[in-house]
Design brief:
By secondary structure, the protein is α/β, with parallel strands linked by helices. The chain is built from twelve helices and eleven strands. The two termini are 37 Å apart.
Length: 292
């Protein structure tokens, strides 16, 4: 525990900040940091933010986007909290990338405590942990929204909104980014999901560019998908398997919920689901069944 304390806390003044960051409104006069502060880490940066209650869809989006972003040597910036923030940091590190965590607390006040290992790993892999607050400052309700201007302000490419409610911190970050003249990218979410309302609103209002791949952010997207790979071939499935697929195309369900919808013996449904899982036609996570 707290291995990250082996790295000394240092201070950098505004005059030595990246040039684009110095120009943001209400820029801090100094920052506390742990890690390797160098010009290279700030050259190409993308802020990735989203819901603390990240859905499986949000996780899949991050896993889909991150390889190409890291391959382009883009530094990922996020806020170190639960959900999308932590997933963005971890995926970046797992792929050998660099990441910057901007805390809503002081550098000696771990928040959330579950991210103890992540804190150390970021430093071990030449990343940065940053805060404008004194080292022993405990996070407050206002300190998280305030630090969001740093998350967006350090981005050179823009801010990617993965999932966001209408009254979320991610939308605060988006509004700050617009004031800072940063590009906003948003992942479209499923209608009716609270965590999708903010991102969908940003897209609908013209505040964000709709993106469905890392290429949309980097400007090298192929907008003509291979139609042969667009839909899976379910023609060789049994009638029961086709019925399960048809239901899961609309929404994920537990096995019990599937049994209530399908008029077949429970034992037959359970066996069929097991076989479909083995064939990677579906996946199960947190008791829910999804199409793979």
């Amino acid at each position: 525990m707290n291995e990250w304390k082996r790295w000394p806390i240092k201070i950098i003044e505004k005059k030595n900040f990246p040039s684009g960051f110095k120009k943001i409104p209400n820029c801090p006069e100094k920052l506390f940091y742990r890690g390797n502060w160098n010009e290279e880490i700030f050259k190409k940066t993308l802020a990735v933010v989203g819901s603390r209650n990240m859905s499986r869809y949000g996780r899949d989006v991050i896993e889909k986007f991150m390889p190409e972003l890291v391959a382009q040597k883009i530094t990922i910036i996020s806020g170190f909290m639960y959900g999308v923030d932590s997933a963005a940091h971890k995926n970046c590190l797992n792929l050998g990338g660099k990441t910057i965590a901007v805390l809503g607390s002081g550098l000696d006040e771990l928040c959330p405590t579950e991210n103890d290992k992540l804190y150390t790993e970021i430093l071990e892999k030449d990343g940065l942990i940053i805060s404008e607050y004194e080292p022993n400052f405990k996070a407050t309700v206002w300190s998280f929204p305030q630090r969001n201007r740093i998350v967006s302000g350090l981005s050179t490419i823009g801010v990617l909104i993965v999932e966001a409610g209408l009254k979320s911190g991610s939308l605060i970050t988006a509004k700050l980014a617009l004031k800072q003249k940063r590009q906003i990218f948003a992942i479209p979410g499923q209608i009716g999901f609270k965590t999708a309302e903010g991102a969908n609103w940003l897209i609908q209002s013209g505040g964000a560019k709709l993106v469905t791949s890392a290429g949309d952010i980097l400007g090298n997207s192929n907008h003509c998908p291979d139609q042969q790979n667009l839909f899976k071939d379910y023609s060789d499935l049994s009638d029961l398997e086709k019925q399960i697929v048809s239901i899961l195309e609309n929404e994920s369900m537990t096995i019990d919920e599937l049994c209530q919808k399908i008029k077949s013996p429970v034992s037959e449904i359970s066996t069929t689901i097991s076989m479909m899982l083995m064939r990677d036609l579906i996946v199960q996570e947190n008791d829910k069944i999804y199409l793979s």
